[in-house]
Fold this protein.
Amino acid sequence: MADQYKDKYDTFERSSVRDRELNLTNHDTANALSYLAAKEYEAYTAHNGKHGSVSKRDKVIRGIVGPIVDREFTAKNLYFLDKKAVVEATVSNVERAEKVV
């Protein structure tokens, strides 16, 4: 599941602060952070199993995505982006990827 976002994350990690400020969009950031969130969700489900309830799954995904986005925004000074939009898009990406697997 996480592999589909790995290239975007690698590009995101290699970019400079200036490059991020000039070229990074909410969508790009969400795609990159989806890699970290999907990896974390995969580890969670490997340890705890998948939830039968869609609402429980969604809460778990949101609980994983929120701290990841907060950490990356702080570490990489991404405050020029819309954090709420990045969270929502990242959650959507992980949910969509989870349904495909």
Notes: Residues 66 and 87 are 7 Å apart (CA to CA). The longest helix spans residues 26-48. The helical segments are 6-14, 17-23, 26-48, 54-75, 83-100.
